[in-house]
Design goal:
The chain is α/β, with parallel strands linked by helices. Among the domains are: about 1-190 and about 240-315, ABC transporter type 1, transmembrane domain (ABC transporter transmembrane region fold), CATH 1.20.1560.10; about 415-485, P-loop containing nucleotide triphosphate hydrolases (Rossmann fold), CATH 3.40.50.300. The chain is built from 20 helices and 10 strands. The strands form 2 sheets. The protein has a 6-stranded mixed β-sheet. The longest helix is centred in the middle third of the chain and has 53 residues, at about 215-265.
């Protein structure tokens, strides 16, 4: 009953088309029944009674009935299938918009292949809910009723004996349908892993090639694909076996009806027309019964997909907050902040107490894995503290309206994310409604205009997925231009130059220095100049802040900082 209500909710927006399809389906059912009805007069009046003057009307009547059935059936199919396509379109839109609202941590736990599979493959199965399942039920059930009505009218006792095996069809269809649902869910899980392997290979193609691991990745994909193939074969076997059962029962019913009907004709208690009409009705009824069985099996597949889709839709969205802010004037304050990843008892950050004042440049240094990136991820609320409080201008960060908070923050990181679009659109991503002059100005301030002007189509050049048609330094400058265009009061630089060569790094650093002017900047430090010029340097070790101060203060008193500084100096030389 719960799933029935869910299906009603899903299909409710498309009921005008569905109702139209039901009406046309009833007409088709009536026409189908009429074809079985005219068998008796065609045989008894034309052939047995030898009223051959009616013969010319029979073929014309049949042609008209089949033509009408075809035209009405076309309209019915179009309405139901277009409703199914609308359902699929809207569900994909809904799922995509939903994942945009999920917290960043969700995407660390769930593979992209699983998410893509639910939006593409599971929703594709959902398409059949209206276009196949509901269409079959609304069209074939009335057809069965009309045809069996004719069969009972012609000879109720013979029809009843013919249908004695019908409950067996219902029980077997239900049994196999449940098994199909389970196997289909297994198959959908397998195809999500196949999708994941494809995405993983595309993103990691350089690593695969440089380590000559094409054969390893190919074997892994082959294994996942083979598992999906086996699961789908099980689904197909179960579905086809259901059809086999229905076919066997149909054959047995028709054979018995034929044998017993001929016996009654021989005794003179039944006319040939009655038998032919009854047999035609019963035989024609078994075809829609078979389709109804198939539709029930398909419904079980669809229910499995709905359950997987609902699992994604039920994932909690980010908490949005309620207090809107439009400026940053005082400070960001961390008070006894600790953080642990969900399901992990060990803390990545422990008892962090830190003030970041308006206009300050704060550099965060520490070994890899001590929690530097996690610390800065707490500021735009990509993650929430497990304990403690972060405030912005005295307001608890958790209470701040999410959109207004992130409007105040710009991020440039080592892992640059660009989109498979034009240079213009990637820069304009930084601010809604940016004009052409705004975009060009931001590009010039980021020292990006000099290479953009040399591209074949300049600002209209498409830069490829993740911007891979550009060099690392060029991608960084596009990202900096995007941040300049946004013009945020708070700037986070997460090792933004760590992967660049010295020439590109120097250019990008000049762009970063322009970007940092007049902003509150939190830097996960990489360059010596950034460390030396910071207003304050924070040393993070094993998830705790162990010291902070200016470069001069720390170099004179802190051995750990001196080791970091010397390591930076050696790498720079």
């Amino acid at each position: 009953m719960r799933m029935f209500k869910r299906i009603i909710t899903l299909t409710k927006p498309y009921w005008p088309r569905v109702v139209g399809g039901i009406v046309l389906g009833l007409i088709v059912s009536g026409i189908t029944a009429s074809i079985a009805w005219i068998v008796k007069p065609a045989l008894d009046d034309v052939l047995v009674a030898k009223k051959y003057e009616y013969l010319r009307f029979v073929p014309l009547g049949i042609v008209l009935l089949f033509t009408a059935k075809g035209l009405v059936g076309f309209g019915q199919t179009y309405l139901m299938k277009s409703a199914g396509m609308k359902l699929m379109r809207e569900m994909r839109n809904r799922l995509f918009n939903h994942i945009l609202t999920l917290p960043v941590g969700f995407f660390n736990r769930e593979s992209s292949g699983v998410i893509i599979s639910r939006i593409i493959n599971d929703v594709e199965v959902l398409n059949g809910l209206i276009s196949h399942v509901m269409r079959t039920f609304v069209m074939e059930i009335p057809t069965v009723v009309f045809l069996l009505g004719i069969a009972f009218y012609r000879r109720w006792d013979l029809t009843l004996m013919t249908l004695i095996l019908l409950p067996f069809i219902g029980l077997s269809t239900r049994k196999f349908g449940k098994r199909v649902k389970k196997k289909r869910k297994d198959a959908q899980r397998r195809i999500s892993l196949v999708t994941h392997r494809i995405g993983e290979a595309i993103q990691g193609m350089r690593i695969i090639k440089v380590f000559n691991r094409e054969d390893v990745m190919g074997e892994k994909f082959k294994n996942e694909n083979q598992r999906y193939y086996r699961e789908m074969l099980r689904v197909i076997r179960l579905k086809e076996f259901t059809k086999l059962v229905i076919d066997v029962v149909t054959g047995m019913g028709v054979a018995f009806a034929l044998w017993y009907g001929v016996t009654l004709i021989a005794k003179g208690t039944m006319s040939p027309g009655d038998l032919a009409s009854m047999l035609a009705a019963v035989y024609m009824a078994f075809s829609p019964i078979k389709k109804i069985g198939e539709a029930y099996t398909a419904l079980q597949e669809t229910i499995g997909s709905i359950e997987r889709i609902d699992t994604l839709l039920d994932t909690a969205q980010e908490e949005k907050g309620s207090i809107k802010i439009d400026r940053f004037t005082d400070a960001l304050r961390f008070r006894n902040v600790s953080f642990a990843y969900p399901g992990n008892s060990s803390y990545v950050l422990k008892d962090i107490n830190l003030d970041i004042n308006h206009g300050e440049v704060i550099a965060i240094v520490g070994q890899s894995g001590v929690g530097k990136s996690t610390l800065v991820d707490l500021i735009p609320r990509f993650r929430r503290p497990s304990a403690g409080v972060i405030t912005i201008d005295g307001i608890n960060l958790n209470d701040v309206e999410q959109h207004s908070l992130r409007e105040l923050i710009g991020i440039v990181s080592q892992d640059i994310i660009l989109f498979n679009d034009t240079v213009r659109e990637n820069i304009a991503f930084g601010r809604r409604g940016a004009t052409e002059s705004d975009i060009i100005r931001a590009a010039r301030l980021a020292y990006a205009d000099e290479f953009i002007s040399e591209l074949p189509e300049q600002y209209d050049s498409v830069i490829g997925e993740r911007g891979l048609m550009l060099s690392g330094g060029q991608r960084q400058r596009i990202a900096i231009a995007r941040a300049i265009l946004k013009n945020p009061p708070i700037l986070i630089l997460d090792e933004a130059t760590s992967s660049l060569d010295s020439v590109s790094e120097a250019t990008v650093q000049k762009a970063l220095e322009k970007l940092m002017k007049g902003r509150t900047t939190i830097v996960i430090a990489h360059r010596l100049s950034t460390i030396r010029n910071a207003d304050r340097i924070v040393i993070l070790d094993k998830g705790r802040i162990t010291d902070s101060g200016t470069h001069e203060q720390l170099i004179s008193r802190n051995d750990t900082y001196m080791r970091f500084y010397n390591a930076f100096a050696m790498s720079a030389s």
